[in-house]
Specification:
Helix content: 55-70%
CATH class of one domain: Mainly Alpha
Largest sheet: 2 strands, antiparallel
Number of strands: 4
Number of helices: 30
Low-confidence stretches: 1-12, 14-20, 332-348, 380-391
Distance between the termini: 106 Å
Radius of gyration: 39 Å
Length: about 575
Amino acid sequence: MAFARGKYGVEYTPAFQASVPEKDFHEVKKVIKPNAAEALKWYRTAAEQGHVEAQYRLGEIYKDGRGVAKDDTEAVRWIRKAAEQGHVDAQYRLGEMYKDGRGVTKDDTEAARWIRKAAEKGQVDAQYRLGEMYNGGRGVSMAHVEAVKWFNKAAEQGLVQAQYKLGLMYRDGVGVANNVEDAEKWFRKAAEQGYADAQYCLGEMYHDGRGVSKDDAEVVKWYCAAAEQGHVEAQFKLGALYEARTKTFRLCKYLSGKLKGYYAEMFKWFRMAAEQGHVEAQYRLAEMYHDGRGVKKDSKEMIEWLRKAAEQGCVEAQFRLGEELMEENGKSLGGKRLLYSYLSGSMKSDAEAVRWFRNAAEQGHVGAQCKLGWMYSEERCKIHASDPCALRDIAEAAKWVRRAAEQGFANAQYKLGLMYRDGQGVVKDEIESARWFCKAAEQGLALAQLFMGRRYRDGRGVAHNDTEAVKWFRKAAAQGNVQAQYNVGFMYHVGRGVAQDYTEAIKWYRKAAEQGNAQAQNGLGILYEEGRGVVRNEAKAIKWYRKAAEQGNEAAKKVCVRKGIAYTSPLKS
């Protein structure tokens, strides 16, 4: 009689079922109930008489521990007996036991030998496994062509994993000529059997238009199929797709309903991916909580997801988390810093912000490098005496500012220029100061342009050159820098670096004066009093002298005293 195994050690084999009429088979099932102990007893009896199927099944029982204690050594003993008699499933199983080191010493070469025996007889799992071994060079020399051959054999038998792997090989041109049409064919076969990785890859092909025409509906269809099975990258990509759609519709008030739906989908899929640990999804989810897109604004949730992403090494999340912590620490209550426990009880402190800035800075984030330099220079690292960051460290500040400056970050270049000017954390060096100011100025930073103008005007770190001074003052002035506007006016007033032109002087003084610059207000008073570039007007001269004097401009105050002009003295802080 054919031997059988059921749910817990006994089942009715195809051979047995085929040997009796269907009606009789159902009668037998009523009489012979699944019984692990009985199955073990009769399998052993038959196995000891050399019955190959019984030997294989007895080995499987010991391997899985069904009705008996797990015993990999005993499992290998019986499976080997069946394998040596040519039992194809036993040959495959013995190869797997050698591959995993279960019941035998791990031996990839021996694993490949037994798996090949089964594969050559058409055992589909063995064919797939042999393809994997050739693909990775495990137990055999790496040979991608051989891998394709065995994947193809298994795929033709409908094995979904092999179909997927074959799709990858054709897509990437590994072991076979690149062929996106064949890749699409095999991905589709696996996808239609519900294989999530293949569904995701098929969605990618529709997204990129590789092997198929671009089709957004198909992209969403296949991503959804994979995402609903928990495929984390598909979940993230769906979130990103809906995010892209929100950007398209955001400016159209008539589509607000659709936009709301897109935000909901975007949040749903990012959240799913984030909960599975997808770092980019965690960061995007934090942004949604920050902006209130698709969800109510929630700073606690934002911090939580930023922290999760930061702890996985997301540089932008580390930087943002440092910023958020620093911003929280900037809040005060009754003039005192407000510190409070958050999440796991850790104190929100500048020291923690420094830690996250440092993590990001060490990975090259220029914003973090600049922030870290600022915090060290401003003593924001001081929390308590035992804190490793407790002391203001200008040298450390200079180190991080330099790193950001060397990556081309204009604000850091400007800051480094200041540090060389003042000898903060570096040896005072006017030439180096001018060099870094120039780098920042050339990137359009108005403050650096102002400082370069001063450098050329005063001959500090560069050769004195009034023409260059005016050039840089004018660049900063055009960006609205008030002090630069005054300086341009002054250079026209006295004729330095440009031909003397009182009309131009009036124009630039006025721009700065109307924004409250006391020097420019005094300059306007002088020109109105003297009637240079404008019709002489004593009343307007007095008006501007008074404004300048009320801001504490000493030259204007002297004029007011001399002319008897009343003005309100500036309040002392």
